[in-house]
Design a protein that fits this description.
Mean pLDDT: 69
Structural class: mainly alpha
Low-confidence stretches: 1-5, 22-28, 43-47, 172-182
Oligomer: single chain
Number of helices: 12
Number of domains: 1
Length: 331
C-alpha cells in the first residue's frame, strides 16, 4: 500500500519516468538518436528552464493571495441578505431555468433552503469538482495540473469565504450585542488565529527540515504520504461536524483536525524535499506545478484544520452563551 502511494505522490520519480520514457516507434528512435548526437556536440540549445526556488515560491505566493482575496470577497458578498440576493440574481443570469433561486428569497418557507444551497452546497460542489480536476492533473494527465491547481485555489477561497459567512450568521443570531461588531469579531477570530497558527507551523517545520533533513527516515515519509490521503478523506467527511450538538462528536472532530495538522505539517516537509530534488536535478520548469500543488495542498490542509478546530471551539462557546439567558429566564 505504501509503495502505491509513494509512486503516486513522489513527483521526482514520476518526472524522471516521464523524461526517460522509451521511444515508441522507429521514427521516435531516429529522432532521439539525432537529438543525443546534437546534445553531445553542444549543437542543441536548451529551451526548457529548470525549476528554481524563486519561481516556485512566487507562484505559490500568488496562489495564496488569490485564495485569500476570493475568500474575503465571498465573505463580503455572503455576509448580508442583500449580498446573497445580488449573488442569486447574477447566478440566475446563467440560465433562465434558475429563476426559482432568486424568487425563493421572497418566500419565507423556501428562504432557508436557498440560503443553504448558495452558502454551503454550491461552494462545496464547486470545490469537489475542482478537486477532481486537480487530482486528474496530478495523478494522470499532467497538462491539466496547472489549471486544476488554479481552480482549486479559487474554489477553496470561495468555499471558506462562504463557510465563514455562515458561521458569522450563526454568531449574530446567538449574540445579544451589536450584530455588525459581532460579525467583525468572528472574521478576526476565525481567520487570524488559523493564519497565525499556520505560519508558526510552517516556520517550525521548515527549520526542522533544513536543520535535520538528512535524519528524516524515508520509511516515515512514505507512511505520512499514505496518512495524507486518509486524512483528506476523513477531513471532508467530518467537516460538517462543526454544526453538531453532540459533545463527543465535537471532541472526535477536534482530534481529527489536530491529527490533520500533524499530517499537513509533515507533507510540507515532504514538499520541501521534493523542491530540493527538483532544483538539484534541474528538472524542467514545465513540471514545477507538481511541487507547487503539493506545497499549496499542505498549507491549505494545515490552515483548514486549524480553522475547523477554532470553529468548533467558537460554536461551542456561542451555544453556551446562548443557553445561559434561557436558563436565567426560567429561574
Amino acid at each position: 500500500m505504501i509503495n502505491i502511494f509513494d509512486r503516486l505522490l513522489n513527483p521526482s520519480k514520476r518526472v524522471k519516468r516521464l523524461l526517460k520514457q522509451p521511444p515508441k516507434d522507429d521514427i521516435d528512435r531516429l529522432l532521439t538518436k539525432k537529438m543525443k548526437a546534437l546534445q553531445k556536440n553542444n549543437l542543441l540549445e536548451k529551451t526548457d528552464q529548470a525549476v528554481t526556488y524563486k519561481s516556485v515560491m512566487f507562484k505559490l505566493s500568488l496562489l495564496l493571495v488569490i485564495t485569500i482575496t476570493i475568500g474575503f470577497l465571498t465573505y463580503r458578498q455572503f455576509s448580508s441578505i442583500e449580498g446573497l440576493k445580488s449573488f442569486a440574481h447574477n447566478f440566475t443570469l446563467i440560465c433562465d431555468k434558475l429563476d426559482f433561486i432568486e424568487n425563493a428569497f421572497n418566500n419565507d418557507a423556501q428562504k432557508k433552503d436557498v440560503y443553504a444551497f448558495l452558502v454551503l452546497f454550491l461552494p462545496m460542489g464547486i470545490f469537489f469538482l475542482s478537486a477532481i480536476l486537480w487530482a486528474i492533473g496530478f495523478f494522470s494527465f499532467r497538462p491539466l495540473l496547472k489549471i486544476g491547481t488554479i481552480f482549486l485555489s479559487l474554489a477553496i477561497g470561495f468555499f471558506f469565504g462562504s463557510f465563514l459567512s455562515l458561521l458569522a450568521f450563526r454568531g449574530k443570531a446567538f449574540q445579544h450585542v451589536n450584530k455588525m461588531q459581532t460579525g467583525i469579531n468572528i472574521v478576526v477570530l476565525l481567520f487570524t488565529v488559523p493564519l497565525v497558527g499556520t505560519i508558526l507551523v510552517l516556520v517550525f517545520m521548515s527549520l526542522l527540515y533544513f536543520l535535520h533533513k538528512k535524519t528524516i527516515p524515508s520509511r516515515f515519509l512514505k507512511t505520512v504520504q499514505t496518512l495524507f490521503i486518509v486524512s483528506l478523506i476523513v477531513f471532508f467527511i467530518s467537516l460538517l461536524c462543526v454544526f453538531s450538538t453532540k459533545w463527543y462528536i465535537n471532541i472526535i472532530a477536534f482530534l481529527l483536525a489536530l491529527f490533520s495538522v500533524f499530517i499537513g505539517a509533515w507533507m510540507w516537509v515532504i514538499a520541501l524535499d521534493v523542491v530540493d530534488k527538483f532544483v538539484k536535478e534541474q528538472i524542467p520548469q514545465k513540471y514545477e506545478w507538481i511541487v507547487i500543488s503539493l506545497l499549496l495542498i499542505a498549507i491549505l490542509q494545515i490552515f483548514t484544520s486549524i480553522f475547523k478546530m477554532v470553529s468548533i471551539l467558537y460554536r461551542l462557546s456561542t451555544e453556551k452563551d446562548n443557553s445561559s439567558p434561557k436558563k436565567a429566564n426560567k429561574n
